[in-house]
Amino acid sequence: MKRDPFEKLDRCHRRLEEALDALARDPSAREDVLDFLGHQMKRHDEDEERSLFPRLAGVTALAEVIAKLEAQHVEQRALTERLAQGEDVGARLIDAYRAHIDIEDRVLFPAAREALSSEDVAAIAEEMEARRGGGGRRNDRR
């Protein structure tokens, strides 16, 4: 049986919060945070942009939320790049991610659980597993 993809996304959020807390406490954690963002969050964003968001495209009530989340992904990538270049944007990056997590945890994920069929949820889980090298059929719905 496949894992619930929302559990995997939620666990990633919790690890992200830990990384953000570390950066807030100690700016010298920047390299570790950048490594996390460059690997874990890159895959997390792909999970959302390639597997979750396309399956929710027909849910009119979520259109605005998804558009906002996609714009936040762009902003987060830009802030991450600026942090990697040594700019002092750690606080802005932390705030941006915290706002993003809040929307996904409170609004998107509960609504997606309600809107998606069990087949869609299983396909998302399979695609996420394939992105992590776990095999399975790969279906890159864009």
- Can you give the helix content as a percent range? over 70%
What is the number of E strands? 0
Q: Given the structure, what is the number of helices?
A: 5
Highest CATH level, the class: Mainly Alpha
pLDDT < 50 runs, ≥5 residues: 136-142
What would you call the shape? globular
Structural class determined from secondary elements: mainly alpha
Let me know the average pLDDT: 92
| Whole-number count of domains | 1
Helix-strand pattern = HHHHH
What CATH calls the topology is: Four Helix Bundle (Hemerythrin (Met), subunit A)
The CATH level-2 architecture is identified as Up-down Bundle
Describe the structure.
With 142 residues, the chain is mostly helical. It has one domain (5-131): Up-down Bundle (Four Helix Bundle (Hemerythrin (Met), subunit A)), CATH 1.20.120.520. The protein contains 5 helices and no strands. The longest helix is centred in the N-terminal third of the chain and has 26 residues, at 30-55. The radius of gyration is 15 Å and the shape is globular. The two termini are 25 Å apart.
Q: Top keywords for this entry?
A:
5 helices, globular, mainly alpha, 142 residues, Four Helix Bundle (Hemerythrin (Met), subunit A), 77% helix
Strand-helix topology:
Layout: H1 5-25, H2 30-55, H3 63-84, H4 90-115, H5 118-131
Helix pairs in contact: 1-2, 1-4, 2-3, 2-5, 3-4
Give a short overview.
The chain has helices at residues 5-25, 30-55, 63-84, 90-115, 118-131. It has 142 residues and is mainly α. Helix 2 packs antiparallel against helix 3 and helix 2 runs antiparallel to helix 5 (118-131).
